[in-house]
Amino acid sequence: VVTAIAGNVNGTVANGITDNDTLTVTTVDTVQVRNTTETVNGNVTSAWMLVPFPGTDGISLREAMTAVNAGSSVGFLDTIDFNASVFPQATPATIAMTSALPTISDSAGTVISALNKTTTPVTLPAGVILDGATAGVGVAGLTMTTGSNRLLGLVVQNFLGVGVVMGSGTGNEVSGFVITGNAGGGITIAGNSDKIFQNTINN
């Protein structure tokens, strides 16, 4: 845990923090997605700023990914997970994409986990569907360019590009996915020492 002092001057407010206010943050962040929109209206300068300062509608997947990438210089592994009430396993919720999601580019690695934590043992998937039917020509579902990323348990469907693009980074993992109906294919791999297992791919 890190305690930071806001660096504002003359008592002005930035990101909801006034001069000399104390903000306690965790260095390993979990950002929970709480809606199915593509809205970005929270503080996306970093993951640890988005958590206390989300938009009025909660945090979207696009917001979470943007914030994690923006704070990559902090150097800690970030996790994005999904609220089980919004994304129940029994009746999966769909995030209908209208454009490409941010490329996963945090140098420390990112975990995007749709594990269903409400069951014992934990099961896959947790009820998160990324649908790319309206995302645009050639758009991929999820793309990563760095290493040490773990993507767990999502459904990726109907994109006009590839379902998952694993770039030149090493040590990435894609597991527990259902990848279906993507025009460009299921998964492309360019790196080394990547792990791909327990996926259902039908394209």
What does this structure look like?
- It contains two helices and 18 strands.
- With 203 residues, the protein is mainly beta.
- A six-stranded parallel sheet has the order 5-6-8-11-14-17. It has a five-stranded parallel sheet with strand order 7-9-12-15-18, with no helix packed on it. Strands 10-13-16 form a three-stranded parallel sheet, with no helix packed on it.
- The termini are far apart.
- Mean pLDDT is 84; it is low at 1-19 and 23-28.
* Helix and strand run: EEEEEHHEEEEEEEEEEEEE
Strand content: 25-35%
The gross shape turns out to be globular
Number of helices: 2
- The Cα radius of gyration reads 17 Å
Major β-sheet strand ordering = 5-6-8-11-14-17
| Helix share, percent | under 10%
Number of strands: 18
* Arithmetic mean of pLDDT: 84
Largest sheet, in brief, is: 6 strands, parallel
> What kind of assembly state do the chains in view correspond to?
single chain
Low-confidence stretches: 1-19, 23-28
Q: What is the terminal-to-terminal distance?
A: 44 Å
TL;DR of this structure?
This protein has helices at 47-50, 61-70, and strands spanning 2-5, 13-14, 17-18, 22-25, 30-33, 78-82, 93-96, 110-113, 128-131, 142-144, 150-152, 155-157, 164-166, 173-175, 178-180, 187-189, 195-197, 200-202. The chain has 203 residues and is mainly beta.
